[in-house]
Amino acid sequence: MSIGGRLRGLLRPDTVVEQVTDLTPPLLLRLGLRGLLLDLDNTLVAHGSLEHDPKLPLWGADLQRAGVALFLLSNAKPLRVRIWSERLQCEGVALAGKPLPFAFLLSLKRLRLPARQCGIAGDQLFTDILGGNMIGCHTFLVKAISERAPAHTRLARSLERRILGDLWPRRPS
Questions:
Q1: Which pairs with CB-CB distance under 8 Å and at least 24 residues apart come from 170-173?
Q2: In a domain, 78, yes or no
Q3: Which of 4, 60, 63, 132 has CB atoms 3.0–4.6 Å from 88's, for a disulfide?
Q4: 169-173 long-range CB contacts below 8 Å, 24 or more apart?
Q5: Distance (Å, rounded) from C-alpha 64 to C-alpha 110?
Q6: Is residue 166 very low, low, confident or very high in pLDDT (cuts 50, 70, 90)?
Q7: Domain count, the chain
Q8: Is 33 left (phi over 0), alpha (psi -120 to 50) or beta?
């Protein structure tokens, strides 16, 4: 396989969902997943927002009651990750440096799970999906909650649209 072919494989999510709450206990358990790493911005909540869907904490609690451990894995700042970790009652790592594997591996160690029993849910191919695929997690690409994002993320999104094709049309402004 060519280098380009391998890279495309690493950028391909295993599963695509509209929103993170589509990841239900029956689905995750059927896939053999006992842990779920979660990106924060534009996966769980809009980038930079402290507002959230009121169902989000209930969703997290349902997963945890079903035996699926949650772990926030975010490139966001520590205070932001701590706030959301407390709201979801789970651990988290800030400034994760995704897609580099270090924080992914640390999160697996803290969860005491092998990669094959863990999923990663995120809205970006070049951070969440690439990093998850590199370590062997089941990868869930979640449609971004908002177009609002830093400049480097907006640039990455334009490349992602080329890779994803017409899977998700651009949202109207």
A1: 171/147, 173/147
A2: yes
A3: 60
A4: 171/147, 173/147
A5: 15
A6: very low
A7: 1
A8: beta
**pLDDT at position 100, please?**
93
For the cut 60, the answer to whether the pLDDT of residue 113 exceeds it is yes
Q: How far apart are CA 87 and CA 85, in angstroms?
A: 5
- State the Cα–Cα distance between residues 55 and 99, nearest whole angstrom: 28
Q: Is residue 169 part of a domain?
A: no
Residue type, position 153, single letter: T
The residue range of the domain holding 131 is 3-164
> What does each C-alpha distance from 118 to 92, 113, 157, 160, 162 come to in angstroms?
15, 7, 25, 24, 28
Classified as helix, coil or strand, 93 is strand
Nearest in space to 28 (alpha carbons), one of 44, 40, 17, 41: 17
- Confirm whether pTM is higher than 0.90: no
Structure tokens at 13: 């999510």
